Amino acid sequence: MRILFLTDRLPCQEDKSGADGINEYLIPGLAESVTVDVVAYEFGGRETDYLARNRNFHVSLVKGKRRLSPIIKLLLTLLLVPYEAVEFYTRRYKETVFELMRRNAYQVIYCDLLFFRQFVSTEGEYKVVVAPHDCLTMLTRRMARATKSYMRRVYLALRYLALARYENKIFTSSDKVLFVSSVDEAFSNRGGSFTNLMTIPLGIDVDHLVPCPRTENACVLGFVGNFSYKPNVDAMVYFLGEILPLVTSQQADVRMLVVGGNVPPELLRFESRAVTFTGFVPDLRESLSLVDVFVSPLRFGSGMKTKMLTAMSLELPIVCTSCSREGIDGLGTDGPLFVRDGAREFAEAILHLLRDKSLRLSIGQNMREFVVERYSWQRIIERHTSLLMSLAEDGK
């Protein structure tokens, strides 16, 4: 079986989580069982390390990915066109895909993100798989509900309409649509008209993310996130402004470690002796070895949060919101995960864990066993491979 894998970019050395993690592990994993050709945009040469480590599949890198200005994105939204459909499109990418499909007989075309479906004809003897990962209409609706700006809500309403129309078109023209969370799948199929949607979650590198030896820490809380993603910014503004003061009023020695790059000024104003921003770190294991309780207070978002799987793999007890635990099935809300949506309830759960070391250790061990059993990349790759082979057989 031969697969053509269309994606935005290959992983760079700095990031192997989330969507980058899918390409970091999924593509090489598939290539162990089937022949894989990959098309991706160049990313400033930062994919060199990835290419050097993975020589069992062919990669065609395309130059010249577009960068749209905010004005152009606004104009496209007013025209009810998802700006990503324009941003991801270039003639060079289309010609590269066309040439590969002319030379090779593919059984499956795998479109990593909605917007690569536009490069594949609806007529062909191949099966088309689209992996949007997150439901963008659900994310847009949640963002609209979270904003206080009237103009921002109007903009997001228009974007919602554009994305809803585009998603419907893509879902209808694809053989299989893969989400990473059952919540996103359910929202996408709220009308019940699609039978080709399914969920395969993200995985985690459980062999790499093993707990480091822990020292006796002085009540350290931790969070991980890229702060170019607005839900992460909102989560930390909420936590540092409303939840952490409730915690420190009961236990003054609590410290907060915030790990991740692109920290905006609105968060840096919280920096103090009790709150540390590390910026980007290449290896989360060392930073999170300082943490006693991991927190994930996201109030909106979509998809699956790999920060949760990372904390689980590192044997950290977690206090989180309902939004943060979406996509992680099989756990309760009072242990091993503590799911709390109110600020006071969230703070109380943190204090409960900080005061009971044996409970933290027990929960951490259970967390790792759970994530190894269900969310190792090996298991996730097996599910993808099985699905793609089944589709290829159906197409014969």
Brief descriptors of the model:
16% strand; alpha/beta; Rossmann fold; 396 residues; 2 domains; globular; six-stranded parallel sheet
Helix content: 40-55%
Order of helices and strands: EHEHEHHHEEHHEHEEHEHEHEHEHEHHH
> How many runs of DSSP E, i.e. beta strands?
13
At the fourth CATH level, what is the homologous superfamily of the largest domain? Glycogen Phosphorylase B
Radius of gyration: 22 Å
Fraction of residues in β-strands:
15-25%
User: What is the total number of structural domains?
Assistant: 2
| Mean pLDDT over the residues | 91
Strand order of the largest sheet: 3-2-1-4-5-6-7
Strand count, sense and closure of the main sheet? 7 strands, parallel
CATH topological fold name of the largest domain: Rossmann fold
In CATH's first tier, which class of the largest domain applies? Alpha Beta
Low-confidence parts:
none
Structural class, please?
alpha/beta
Write the layout of secondary structure elements.
Elements: E1 2-9, H1 18-31, E2 35-41, H2 48-53, E3 58-62, H3 70-78, H4 83-87, H5 91-103, E4 108-112, E5 127-133, H6 136-146, H7 150-172, E6 176-179, H8 182-188, E7 197-199, E8 220-224, H9 230-250, E9 255-259, H10 265-268, E10 275-279, H11 284-288, E11 293-296, H12 306-313, E12 318-320, H13 322-325, E13 337-339, H14 343-354, H15 357-375, H16 377-394
Parallel strand pairs: 1-2, 1-4, 2-3, 4-5, 5-6, 6-7, 8-9, 8-11, 9-10, 11-12, 12-13
Helix pairs in contact: 1-16, 6-7, 9-14, 12-15
